[in-house]
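Researcher: Good morning. I'm working through a list of sequences from a screen, and I'd like to move beyond sequence-only analysis. For each chain I'm collecting a predicted structure so we can compare shapes side by side. This is the next one on the list. No need for commentary yet; just the structure.
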Amino acid sequence: MSEPHAPRRPLDPESAPPIFEASGLRKRYRLGAFTIEALRGVDLVVTRGEFVVVAGPSGCGKTTLFNLLGALDGPDSGSVLFEGSDLGRQTSGERTLFLRRKVGFVFQSFNLIPVLTAYENVEYPLRIDGLGRAERRRRTEEALASVGLAGRMHQRPDQLSGGERQRVALARGLVHDPRVILADEPTANLDSTTGAEIVDLLARTNTERGTTFLIATHDPAVIERSPRRIRLLDGRVIADEGAGARRPGGVR
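Model: Good morning. Structure tokens for this chain:
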């Protein structure tokens, strides 16, 4: 990270390339004798600093879309540009850099390592990246403090509440100060009060750091909080509502 809690320098969205520009995304999966069309020609543009909800029922294609945007999988056809660079044409080194430095993930199941403390879970990606001990400590403590867990960093996941575990997951996603966070159903395993607190934290992080957020959800309370709502159904975008709604090519 750069300076603690320092917001990103404002950029002109008309001159800077979008964080994501997806065109014609299609993805199919084989399930025995059947073919499931998870995405059927999805177009999407997300500019820097946006807070966007991708909404829809289970099975509509939200997780598949996030896997393609996060370069965890590739499309059968179509393309994903990240800051103008085609993820499908990146070298293995460029993709590794993208996954380690430019995108952070938050999952509904938290995906924490149960035998590690909150501190160790957040620090782990920095160890993989080869950072020195002092820098790892600075970044890890800063990330945990930013999500309100400075006093809980030495607890293991089974000693934390669901909301605290999701905060650890967010801290781990933020520890590299990524351009964008992809959060897949971040409130699904939380009660309504804790879920609202997590959404507050995501929104505050977006405002204070300028981190772009894409949140996949079918939770009405989360959908209502977002200034922009992209709705998926049966693998297609059926609506793009609110501030910042655009189509590929820069057309609003």
